[in-house]
Amino acid sequence: MQMLMPKPQIFVERTLALIKPDVVDKEEEIEDLILRSGFLIVQKRKLQLSPEQCSNFYADQYGKVFFPNLTAYMSSGPLVAMVLARHSAVSYWKELLGPSNSIKARRTHPYSLRAIYGTDDLRNGLHGSLSISSAEREIRFMFPEVISEPIPAGQRARDYLNLYVKPTLLAGLTVLCKEKPADPMTWLADWLIEHNPNKPRLQHQITEEEHQ
After folding, report:
1. Residue scoring higher pLDDT (203 or 100)
2. What are phi and psi of 77, to 5 degrees?
3. 155-190 exposure pattern, b = at least 16 Cβ within 10 A, e = fewer
4. N- to C-terminal Cα distance for the chain?
5. Structural contact between residues 116 and 38, judged by C-beta atoms closer than 8 angstroms
6. What is the pLDDT of residues 62-74, one digit of tens each?
7. What are the residue boundaries of the Nucleoside diphosphate kinase-like domain, all occurrences included (predicted)?
8. Model confidence at 145, in pLDDT bands (50, 70, 90)?
9. How far, in Å, CA of 148 to CA of 139, rounded?
10. Which of 11, 94, 169, 183 gets the most CB atoms within 10 Å of its CB?
11. Which residues form the catalytic set?
């Protein structure tokens, strides 16, 4: 029986995480839990939103009874915004957070972050994006200076691999076979970094004297 090779895929996904104002003092502790759960913190900033900015961020909740209390709570002090990345980041982050109501979370998901750091349904400690599309929107809101490119999938992902990844990898493996280094994995990693086709080329090297 012929073995079918799996189609190439891109697994990295991003989501937005917020440490809300009432638990900002637990920032380092929470970040340690995030990193130990397999996430990479790609971007991070501490900021304080105005009530108007909070209203815009939670625009999909507008008109609900708790909306005024939500915007008042989220604008009551500084918060920490982070872009988290890993395989299936959105769903894994939601799982780590637990139910939105911290009281319920302590009953059903006692080891979740909201069970540990949250107080009730409103003051639940942390925020997570509900979907990939909402994650991209929220990341653009919190990090407007970052260019957010859509993650390729399906045929676009295969085209990207065939156009940019495979030719460089094939060239590196060819040279690897000729060189036969003692540590092939490290050698190949260094070679790929050096020959990255997307690596920026500096037109002019600024010396320390010129900078001063």
Report:
1. 100
2. -175, 180
3. eeeeeebeeeeeeeeeebeeeeeeeeeeeeeebbee
4. 68
5. no
6. 888 999 999 999 9
7. 12-150
8. confident
9. 8
10. 94
11. 127
Q: How far apart are CA 84 and CA 90, in angstroms?
A: 9
Q: What is the CA radius of gyration of the chain?
A: 22
pLDDT of 212 over the 50 cut: no
pTM equals: 0.65
Fold of domain 156-195: cAMP-dependent Protein Kinase, Chain A (1.20.890)
Per-residue pLDDT of 91-105, as tens digits, reads: 999 999 999 999 999
Q: Are 20 and 79 in contact (CB under 8 A)?
A: yes
Conformational region of residue 154, where left means phi above 0, alpha means psi within -120 to 50, and beta covers everything else: left
DSSP-assigned beta bridge partners for residue 13: 86
Out of 2.60.40.2310, 3.40.109.40, 3.30.70.141, 1.20.140.10, which CATH number does the structure's domain 14-142 have? 3.30.70.141
